[in-house]
DNA sequence: GCCCAGGGGGCTC
DNA sequence: GAGCCCCATGGG
């Protein structure tokens, strides 16, 4: 796993995730980026910022319709408005300083986050890793696709199995996890996309490229 | 016109 | 509990 990381880092360089000024902004971004290109998320976050809606409690106060209209560029805007307000409500219940996000036990926080409407495993782990600084590996569909192609897992990809693989083999270093996940996204969007360009892949000989037809999309 | 993007909830069977 | 469908905009 470290070998893969080193090759990706050498090829793509540091990715600079997660771009946000505050933990609250990171949490908002984690919802907005669900199945959405980051470019569109930035637009939505800028619109929230322009309207002073990037602090705990502000989204609840503004209400669903206002939030929905502002985040429209990021897609799924009616769903995501509900999710953002549910998240904001949770943050308020926990304390608006948000120190708890870094200080409390990540396992406990994970359970709480998963209970919030609109937060699943990937979003919860993103919040724990990037906003909380906890050593929790974030798995996404790219990770599953890439590991399938590398021949390191059997289909279908399982979130927690994959997460365990990384966490068993890597040092528990949040900065490493942050960079690694970002690099996997770079690979998944780049050479190892749904129609892979194996000749341009930085993993080269590590990947025993099986026939593409043996893999499902996504 | 088609496909994809830094998922998750809800419904059916 | 697996298999679908829905959400929705913006860019290549």
Folded structure, characterized:
The chain is mostly helical and 218 residues long. It has two domains: 90 residues, Endonuclease Iii, domain 2 (Orthogonal Bundle); 109 residues, Endonuclease III, domain 1. Helix 1 crosses helix 12. The C terminus is likely disordered.
**Number of beta strands:** 0
Might you state the CATH topology name of the largest domain? Endonuclease III, domain 1
Supply the number of helical segments: 12
Please give the share of residues in helix.
Answer: 55-70%
CATH class label of the largest domain: Mainly Alpha
The helix-strand sequence is: HHHHHHHHHHHH
Average of the residue pLDDT scores: 93
Coarse structural class: mainly alpha
Please identify which CATH superfamily of the largest domain we are dealing with.
Answer: Hypothetical protein, domain 2
Topology:
Elements: H1 2-12, H2 23-32, H3 38-50, H4 58-62, H5 64-70, H6 77-94, H7 100-103, H8 106-114, H9 121-131, H10 141-150, H11 159-169, H12 174-189
Helix pairs in contact: 1-12, 2-3, 2-6, 2-9, 5-6, 8-9, 10-12
The chain binds a DNA duplex (13 and 12 nucleotides) through residues 17-18, 29-31, 33-41, 43, 72-80, 83, 117-123, 126, 138, 140-142, 181-182, 184-185, 188-189, 193-194.
């Amino acid at each position: 796993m470290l070998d893969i990381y080193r090759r990706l880092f050498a090829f793509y360089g540091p990715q600079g995730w997660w771009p946000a000024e505050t933990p609250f902004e990171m949490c908002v971004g984690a919802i907005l980026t669900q199945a959405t290109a980051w470019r569109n998320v930035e637009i939505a976050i800028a619109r929230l910022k322009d309207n002073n809606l990037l602090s705990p409690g502000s989204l609840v106060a503004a209400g669903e319709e206002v939030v929905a209209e502002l985040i429209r560029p990021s897609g799924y805007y009616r769903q995501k408005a509900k999710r953002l307000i549910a998240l904001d409500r949770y943050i308020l219940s926990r304390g608006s300083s948000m120190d708890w996000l870094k200080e409390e036990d990540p396992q406990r926080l994970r359970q709480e986050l998963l209970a919030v409407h609109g937060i699943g495993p990937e979003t919860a782990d993103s919040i724990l890793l990037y906003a909380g600084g906890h050593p929790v590996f974030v798995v996404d569909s790219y990770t599953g696709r890439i590991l399938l192609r590398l021949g390191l897992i059997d289909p279908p990809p399982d979130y927690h199995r994959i997460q365990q693989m990384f966490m068993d083999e890597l040092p528990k270093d949040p900065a490493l996890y942050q960079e690694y996940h970002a690099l996997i996204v770079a690979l998944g969007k780049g050479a190892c996309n749904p129609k892979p360009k194996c000749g341009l892949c930085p993993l080269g000989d590590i990947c025993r490229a099986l026939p593409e037809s043996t893999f499902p999309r996504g």
